[in-house]
Amino acid sequence: MADNTKPIPPVPNKADILEKSPKDSKQVSVTWIRWFIQIRDKINLINESIAGLAKFTGTGFISSDGAGNFNGRTIGGTSSRISVSNGDGATGNPVVDLVDTGVTPGTYANTNLTVDESGRITNATNGSASGAPLTTKGDIFGYDTADARIPVGTDGYVLTADSTDPLGVSYKPPGTPTLPVTTKGDLLGFSTVADRVPVGSNGQVLTSDSTNSLGVSWKGSTSTLIQKIVTTASQSAVTFSSIPGTFTDLLVIFSGRDTSASVAVSPLRMILNADTTASNYTTTNYVEGFNGTASSGGLASTSAGAYIAYCPGTSSNANAIGTASISIPNYSGTIFQKIVMGTNTVVFNSGTTAGMACDVRTFRWANTAAITSITFNAGTTAFLNGTTFTLYGLG
To answer: Which of 173, 223, 233, 347 could form a disulfide with 392 if both were Cys (CB 3.0 to 4.6 A apart)?
Structure first.
């Protein structure tokens, strides 16, 4: 088959159609003969194409495969994405369109979109602007662990880098230094640079302290109230738990009586750190004055604790009352075993002088642990409602 890619050759010059032959006669020139041959080849090629087209009997758009064969082609598309009507053009012009995705046409606010793998929007709904943290003219977006609002500052203030602010910036007057204080009651101190002196606990006082890098520290005053317990509901035990270790000594003030009407005197027993092993508490030694007569002795400890004071009943006096002042030196230390000392005054008989005792008591707890809890147990029945136990930290 001739090469169908070459164009039809141009017609040679008319003057060149004849040329002399060797016999001195006129004949058609070689140029024209070659042109006629090329025309013949083109005509044959056209004839072959026409013959191929004549064989085509289908519908659709005609496509050549370059080898003289012709095929019918039809425009198509994926049915769920592109719609095609009259794709072969047999009954009308082909029409190509997009398939509706079901999204309602319109304008959406704060739009929530769903997009498929072909980039088509398959769902659209109005969103909500409630997540935006900005509320006031001048607010700007910031970030902590999530988008957050940086409230507009006071007129004339400037936005300043501030590591103490959760958002890392804050509005300050021009030239204002960033201070290290973070909490109500903090003070500005100095070691090698300006630094924060954290606020102390209630009742503590600021004290010179060369061991602290800032030269000062908060310490307990002469006495700091830790906790006061007023008994209710006929309590038979009172416990101070989670005692802080920030003081030097402890002091407990007791005032009250037992509910028992069958005894005049009842023991007030004391347990440290919930230790109920009687052998860990020595005998409580005492020196006592009772109605003008002195005496001394020892009182055994039990699993309910050491006998640190009298807690009277009401068998002899409906208005009986006992008081005690109980101290524990070096309670937070861990080198020495603990010694507990108490002074006790009790009125357990009626009258102006009879039935009144005053004594001094002491016992040792055979343990070097820091004291973190104290329990007082009623020796007979329960503490009368309104009995008080007040715990102070000293030093």
So the answer is: 223
